[in-house]
Amino acid sequence: MSFVERHGLQTVERRDAARRVAEIVRSEKLELVRLSFPDQHGILRGKTLVAEEALKALDGGCTLTTTMFAKDTSHRSVFPVFTANGGFGMPEMQGAADALMIPDPDSFRVLPWAEKTGWLLCDAYFHDGRPVPFATRHLYRTVLKALAARGYEFMAGLEVEFHVFKVEDAHMRPADAGQPGEPPAVSLISHGYQYLTEQRFDQIAPVLDIVRRDIQALGLPLRSVEVEFGPSQCEFTFQPTAGLLPADLMVLFRSAVKQICRRHGYHATFMCRPRIPNVVSSGWHLHQSLVDRTTGANAFMADAPGVPLSAAGQGYLAGLLDHARAATVFSTPTINGYKRYRSFSLAPDRAVWARDNRGAMIRVLGGPGDPGTRLENRVGEPAANPYLYMASQVLAGMDGMARTLDPGPSADVPYEADRPLLPRTLQEAVAALDADTFFRGAMGDTFIDYYVHIKTAEIARFHAEVTDWEHREYFEIF
Fold first, then answer.
1. Helix, strand, or coil (residue 14)
2. Can you give the pTM of this predicted structure?
3. CB-CB contact of 234 with 208 (8 Å)
4. Cα dihedral value 18, 22, 28, 31, nearest 10
């Protein structure tokens, strides 16, 4: 009996999907299949198997070391994995023991840029069949089940900004290796500040066409390809999708863009604000709504004149605002991302909403009778783990609906509104989450303590580093 059968994971639908994967692998004579799982940072990790071994892993799984869950963004293990219970308080995590990646056959793709290679997204389980509690795809799935129990399905549309540069020096000399290594030296593919001009788009189209074709070949629901405001900056937007899919699409999209670009001599980065002259910060705007599972209608759409949202939509919006400070670490999980929060910019600096105003944290779009009514949260950075970002939105929104919270009036001058400021640093955001009783109750102390530990280790490494600013400021004067 296979792992998925032994632990009740097998369904008729899953069995049929696995059969379809096997048919494609064999008919297209694929040689390799990449098995990947999204880690705590939303980075894909995993193993590449020869095709027949990958088909066996569909039901039997593939091992991975549990230290993958101990890594910060430098790939350092920040838990003492060789001590009792591995530093997690869990014997299953001790001694860099193995867990299992169980592929999701519905996620299967043939990678257009990698010869005869397939790809499967996986979930992480312990050998006794329990989900690894630090696996964020599991966490998000649990949140979606709670939402479904209330009669709703989550819909999200992705609007993602990022930079693409030409690699001038890959910095692959032995001295450039490290943890992390020396990043590549790059040059621009375009000057900035000609926002949405056709000439600028045509200048970078040869690069973006390469990416676009492979993204479409993957079957991702691409909607638009745009030139953004900053130098070498662009934006891809996607049609709305439901449930788990938008988060899965985001991790695949980011990984695909980076791989495609690197194969053609370019470097794509979803870092919010690279340290490059004249650069402009990148954001990830998350468009979201709920669908009534019984009627299929947009649950945010108002049915009375004079109001932008239904009662459910107003409660959901109010929940996002009420929990904004504690949720910020999920939407902006890097030290760098907080350099984007600036007053009188296109990024928010406080927890406010407004009708069609790009200075607000939540931009309300649509109105009475408009089935496209939605909320656009403009707080996120493109490096965010989509499972945590979306889970935090759904949890906060459900709480606002359950408590029938009032979002208050539209902040038509959002940078002057008397509303709570968003955290100004990752350290402030982590402290807000650590002290927050709502997310501790919703996600569990085990996960919150785990996530706070990893982010605190990242912050500690940052504070231990001597920066260029410090050297310029103090080396001569003192």
1. helix
2. 0.96
3. yes
4. 110
